[in-house]
Every structure is written in structure tokens, then in C-alpha cells.
Specification:
Layout: H1 2-16, H2 24-46, H3 50-90, H4 94-104, H5 111-146, H6 151-191, H7 216-223, E1 232-241, E2 247-255, E3 258-263, E4 268-274, E5 278-282, E6 289-297, E7 303-304, E8 307-308, H8 314-328, H9 335-339, E9 352-360, H10 363-380
Antiparallel strand pairs: 1-2, 1-9, 2-3, 3-4, 5-6, 6-9, 7-8
Helix pairs in contact: 2-3, 3-6, 5-6
Length: 386
């Protein structure tokens, strides 16, 4: 019941704040503030002395006139702007409406500029009203012709265009006149200092396309498309350090399964490491150095460290098999050999090589990247909490 009563009492202020009505609530609030200052400031000055009383009367009168002027002009301007916008919608001319909305964003800063903009838009609205009688039917006829419609549809389109043109004859001039009042009101408000336009804090800077940084969307769409667009947990800008000491701009893309190394200058993928087979650490002495270690099992090759292993040809291999087959029949296992169990020899683990890669990063972002990498790796290895 309390909320219902509050909503009923506040409904009047909500309706009065609508710009379509000129925001009369703002006018009443502004007038109230002006009247309050007109009596409050002289009274406060009277308690301090004759000089303060005279100053209070002056400031109170100034505040009263300022609030009355600001409230009245703001209400009239809002009402005119709302009327102009609604007339543009009722004209049924989408091109005219979009053009007016674009111009409406350019608020005048003085009375002269407001009059100039208002008169120019009024003139364009009048010309548009006259030209729309012919232009609207022709546009509808061209649209139906391009769609290869029947004669009935073409006639219907022409009649619809004539209706839009006639509607624009009445609505566009009214909208132009309201726009003149609106722009003049904005010019007076901004020129007299009763209202201030928002000031730009920073100057815009142009950035060439080749200097723009890459985004997550680009990486996902261009480079990770074949993997089904995996989730990119983090993209870290780094400096790739080659073995020769050369440095190139790059990026580390951390996904749920793979760590990608991208060269920004070449815009290509350089390497891809499974997160379960690498370790990512930050150098203890050099905080801006990120180290990635990849452990790879060593595959035995033909050339060993202790010598050269020769491959047998097919003829030699057949001779060796024939020799073993003929001599094996002369071998008989003895009792002692059958009773003695052969010793179990532990097999040495396969040798592995460790490859190390270095990247220069921002120390703070490097710590965040290591934390995310640890989380992703533990999740891939099913360690800790899911």
C-alpha cells in the first residue's frame, strides 16, 4: 500500500518530466529555486549587516531572473525539439528523418549560430515538403520496378508515395519551424551561459590500421578457426627473443589446451605448445623475462654418441636369420639354467631434451599470465578443483 501511494503521488512528476510536454516539472523546479533564492539570500545577508543585505538582494534577484529565464527557455526548447522530432517521424520520409537527427546532434554555441542553423533547416524542410510530392511517388515506383512487381503493386506503390508526399507537405514545414525555435533556444541558453555543452577532455588521435593492436576476436576468427574457436583465457603482448638475439613483437595466446606463439609483425603463428607438456615461469633475477620450457622425449637415431650403428642390408639380414635358425637347434637348456631365474634389470627411462624459450613481458602482466597458465594446466591435468 505504501509503494502504491508513493507511485500515485509521484506519477504527476513523472508525467511532468516528459520532454514531449516541454518538461513542466523542470520549469516548476527551476522557478521554485529562483523564488527560494530571491527570499533566502537577502534574509541571510540581513543577519550579517546592511552591506550583506544589499549584496543578498542583488544576488537573489539575479538568481531569480536566471532561474526563471533558464526554466522557461529550457521548457520551450524541449517542447520545440519534441515537436520537430515527432513531425519528422510523421512525414514518413526516412531519409529526411535521419538527416534531421544527424543535424540535431550539432548544438549551437551562440544565438547567431542557432539562428543560422534554424533558418537553414527550415528552408531545407520547406524545399523537402515541395519536392516530396514528386520524389516520394518516384522512389516507390523505382522500388517496385526493381522488385519486378505486377502492375497492381506498382500502382499501389505510386499511390502510397503520393500519400507520403502530401503528408510531408503538412509535417515538414511544421517540423522546420519547431526546429528554428529549438535551435534559437539552444543558442540563447549556451550563449548566455545558462547551459553549458559538455567539453571534450582529450583530443582525438588518428591511429593507422597497420599500427593498431590485434584483438581477441581477430585471433579467434583468423587463427583458431580450425580448432573450433576455443576459449582464449589471455592474450599477452610479448617481445620474442630469438636465439641470435633478435627481438620481434609477438603475442602469447593461452587456450584451454594449447599455448600459441604469434608474431605480430608477420601476423602468423610461430609455435604451438600443449599446455600439459610445458612449464611457464618468471625469471627470479629479471622480472620482465618469461621462460617457457618444453620437455621432449629423445628419439634414438642411427648415429649414437658412443659410435656409429650400421644398418643391415636385406641380404645380410636374411643370412643372419638363417644362421640363427640353424644353430638354435643345437642349443639345449640345462637344468641349472632352468632352475636359475634370470635377474630383473630395471629399464632406464628414455632420455629427454629440454628446450627453453624466452619472452620479454610486462612484469605485472607476466604474473597474471603465469597464474592463468597454472590454472589452465591443472585443469587439463585434472589436478585440484575443477
Amino acid at each position: 500500500m505504501h509503494y502504491a501511494a508513493g507511485a500515485l503521488f509521484r506519477a504527476g512528476w513523472v508525467v511532468g518530466s516528459l520532454e514531449i510536454l516541454g518538461s513542466p516539472a523542470s520549469l516548476v523546479r527551476s522557478v521554485g529555486n529562483g523564488i527560494s533564492d530571491f527570499f533566502r539570500l537577502p534574509y541571510e545577508g540581513l543577519t550579517r549587516g546592511p552591506g550583506a543585505f544589499v549584496s543578498g538582494v542583488s544576488r537573489g534577484t539575479t538568481s531569480f531572473v536566471k532561474h526563471i529565464s533558464k526554466g522557461t527557455l529550457t521548457s520551450i526548447t524541449n517542447l520545440a525539439t519534441s515537436l520537430a522530432r515527432n513531425m519528422d517521424r510523421l512525414s514518413l520520409d526516412e531519409e529526411h528523418y535521419n538527416r534531421q537527427e544527424e543535424w540535431r546532434r550539432q548544438l549551437p554555441e551562440s544565438l547567431g549560430e542557432g539562428l543560422r542553423q534554424g533558418l537553414s533547416r527550415l528552408g531545407i524542410s520547406l524545399l523537402g515538403a515541395i519536392a516530396g510530392i514528386v520524389d516520394q511517388p518516384m522512389q516507390n515506383f523505382q522500388k517496385t520496378s526493381e522488385a519486378q512487381a505486377s502492375a497492381g503493386h506498382k500502382a499501389k506503390g505510386v499511390i502510397s508515395g503520393v500519400g507520403k508526399g502530401i503528408m510531408g507537405v503538412f509535417t515538414k514545414p511544421i517540423g522546420g519551424a519547431a526546429e528554428l525555435v529549438s535551435q534559437t533556444g539552444y543558442g540563447i541558453l549556451h550563449g548566455a551561459g545558462l547551459s553549458q555543452l559538455p567539453k571534450q577532455r582529450y583530443q582525438p588521435s588518428d591511429l593507422h590500421a597497420d599500427q593498431a593492436p590485434n584483438s581477441h576476436v581477430k585471433y579467434v576468427w583468423k587463427m583458431l578457426q580450425s580448432l573450433g574457436r576455443p576459449e582464449v583465457h589471455m592474450a599477452l603482448d610479448v617481445v620474442l627473443v630469438r636465439g641470435s638475439g633478435q627481438e620481434h613483437e609477438g603475442c602469447l595466446l593461452l587456450t584451454s589446451e594449447v599455448l600459441f606463439v604469434v608474431s605480430v609483425s608477420e601476423d602468423t603463428q610461430q609455435q604451438a605448445f600443449p599446455v600439459t607438456e610445458i612449464d611457464c615461469t618468471q625469471d627470479s633475477k629479471q622480472s620482465n623475462l618469461l621462460t617457457v620450457q618444453l620437455k621432449q622425449p629423445r628419439v634414438a637415431c642411427d648415429v649414437e654418441v658412443d659410435g656409429v650403428r650400421e644398418r643391415l642390408s636385406e641380404q645380410q639380414y636374411n643370412r643372419l636369420v638363417d644362421y640363427i635358425t640353424k644353430t638354435s637347434c643345437h642349443l639345449a637348456p640345462s637344468c641349472s639354467s632352468m632352475q636359475t631365474s634370470s635377474p630383473v634389470v630395471a629399464v632406464d627411462p628414455p632420455l629427454s631434451t629440454v628446450k627453453t624459450y624466452h619472452y620479454l613481458v610486462d612484469p605485472h602482466f607476466g604474473q597474471v599470465f603465469i597464474s592463468k597458465f597454472t590454472m589452465v594446466k591443472n585443469k587439463a591435468l585434472r589436478k585440484g578443483f575443477p
